[in-house]
Amino acid sequence: MSSKNIPFFLSLIFVCLSTLAHAQTPQVPSEIEFADLTIRIHEHARREIQLDVDALYRNKTYFNIKADRINLYLPIVEKELREAGVPLDLKYLVIQESSLIADAVSTSNAVGFWQFKKGTAEEVFLRVDNVVDERKNIVSSTKGAALYLKKHNAQFDNWMCALVSYQMGLGGAKAYFGTELNGKRIIVLDRNSHWYFKKFLAHKIAFEGQSALLVSNGRYLNELRVQGPTTLKAIAPKLGVTEAHLKEYNKWTSNGQIPGDKTYTVVYLKEGSVPVKPAVITNQENFGTQPNSQAANTKGTSSYPRVTGNQQKATQPNQIKVNNIDGVMATATTSQEAFAEDIGIRERKFRRVNDLDRNEKIEAGQYYYTDPKKSKADVQTHIVQPGETLWAISQMYGIKLSSLKAKNRIRRDKDLKSGMVLNLVDHRKRNEEIRIVPLSTPPRSIQASTPPAQQTPQPSVSQPVYQPAPASPPVRSASNGNGSIAHTVGQGENLFRISQRYGVSVDEIKKWNNLPDNNIRIGQKLTILKP
Q: Which of these, 465, 411, 413, lies nearest to 278 by C-alpha position?
């Protein structure tokens, strides 16, 4: 090659490399689908978005580092958005907000995966203090973000407006958009459209359909639901990882402490690919059980009903969630009419969402729902205890009474037998006998022992809760030989659940034990007179 042709040859190589790099970078289309909207993009806005997409691809090393985090965390984000009824397209917002860095902090002091300020975090029931900061917990913070976005979308009926309100606040978004786009399904973007949504679309376009570029290294993040109090140090050996490993992926807990106020999710790396169903993690004694074991795995369900939010104001509406459904606790035994009026809900709706007959009393200490229950629970099965009713079980797990009856082909309480294994997710097959297990131990719920090949994938089923085993098994009840029973209060129990177990009323238990109110504590001894 002659020396005079070298500059031309180098120029040709540069053009080819530039063209190749350009071909690898996704190009912004003139029309794109987002959530349930069609977004039509004018040329000036398209060029703006393309510049942001190009910037995301400019540094290949940085892109791969971010892609690795995306590959680890996004399956969890997708699961939580799906369960909350939020479009999966919103998952790209967490990439835009924090690049999926757990302890990211903005200049305005927003923290965590979804960049919540403290006040906003507490509005969506995240705990933020010197012990726990759930903004740094991928599961909790995604639940909070889904709640926030869903609440704002209810104002606009437009997910683009709801997304922009994530940056501006609801008041700011209402002032910016007015009502012009409410309910609209076709949106036109131009040079004047909000920058935050254009930047979001750049992240969606950059990372959508780029799974071939994601580097998982054959690992995935597994979830473990933990009811404290316990520590990461205590859990680590059972998971086969180091305490340092758990601290790296669980920056939400200060000094590795997991308090006992509610159930928290711990994540850790496992080899392999994300399973269709979360691995079954049980109590400490059978902690190592593999998810595909055909032996029945048992676990205590004292964490049900699962109550989150401001539990100090549990008796007030809009303060707590019961099994992730809006709920409230009754302070006194009263009528449905009085209670519904007190919490600001129509009596008819209240009766419907709680599966109550017209004349049933409201029981003190019982949790009631203010939004409809679900068609399935977060655990597979429940073991019937003495004195339980179909209604009490449906309330315990937040499952519709009709669904519970249909799944098990049981219509009447008198058909229930102690030890029966009731399905809470799948329907019992026709002519299939209901299993009955001995009640020699306290577990209330078990995982179905169906071989994996016969199981229907349930990607949205939550994991069972890991609870540290007590130093010695608690004595739950014992006969005193004088017509009474001594009951020791266990984790998660309240007066209503104890009354259901023994077939007595809450007021009777309070009278027998001289209780001034409905407050009881774990380990407290209660006297139950035989009915």
A: 465
Q: Is 479 helix (H, G, I), strand (E, B) or coil?
A: strand
Burial tier of 114 (Cβ tally within 10 Å: 0-12, 13-18, 19+): buried
CA angle 185, 113, 214 (to 5 degrees): 80
Q: Give the mean pLDDT of the chain.
A: 79
Question: Please, is 150 exposed, middle or buried when counting C-beta atoms within 10 Å of its C-beta (0-12, 13-18, 19+)?
Answer: middle
Q: What is the dihedral of CA 70, 75, 81, 87, to 10 degrees?
A: 70
Asked if residue 71 lies in contact with residue 215, where contact means CB atoms within 8 angstroms, the answer is yes
Cα(468)–Cα(470) distance, integer angstroms: 6
Query: 186-189 and 37-41: which strand pairing?
Result: parallel
Q: What is the pLDDT of residues 386-435, one digit of tens each?
A: 778 899 899 999 999 999 999 998 888 888 888 889 999 888 887 788 88
User: What confidence tens digit (pLDDT) does each residue in 283-313 have?
Assistant: 333 333 333 332 333 334 446 788 888 877 7
User: What is 234-264 written as a DSSP string?
Assistant: HHHHHHTS-HHHHHHH-TTBGGGEE-SSSEE
CA dihedral 504, 507, 509, 513 (to 10 degrees): -160
Burial tier of 73 (Cβ tally within 10 Å: 0-12, 13-18, 19+):
buried
Residue type, position 528, single letter: I
How far is residue 38's CA from residue 27's CA, in Å, rounded to a whole number? 17
* DSSP state letter for 426: S
Task: Convert the pLDDT of each residue in 119-164 to its tens digit.
Answer: 999 889 999 999 999 999 999 999 999 999 999 999 999 999 999 9
Q: Does pLDDT of 333 surpass 90? A: no
**Confidence (pLDDT) at 273:** 59
Assess whether pLDDT exceeds 50 at residue 458.
no
pLDDT (average), residues 344-351: 91
Tell me phi and psi for residue 318, to 5 degrees.
65, 25
The 3-state DSSP composition of the chain as helix, strand, coil percent (nearest 5) reads 40, 15, 45
Residue 468 is classified by DSSP as P
Spatial contact of 390 and 416, defined as CB atoms under 8 Å apart: yes
- DSSP per residue over 283-324, as a string? -GGGTT--TT-SSPPEE--TT-S-EEE-GGGTTSTTSEEETT
Task: Look at residue 51 and give its three-state secondary structure.
Answer: helix
Residues 6+ away with beta carbon under 8 Å from 201: 28, 32, 34, 39, 41, 49, 189
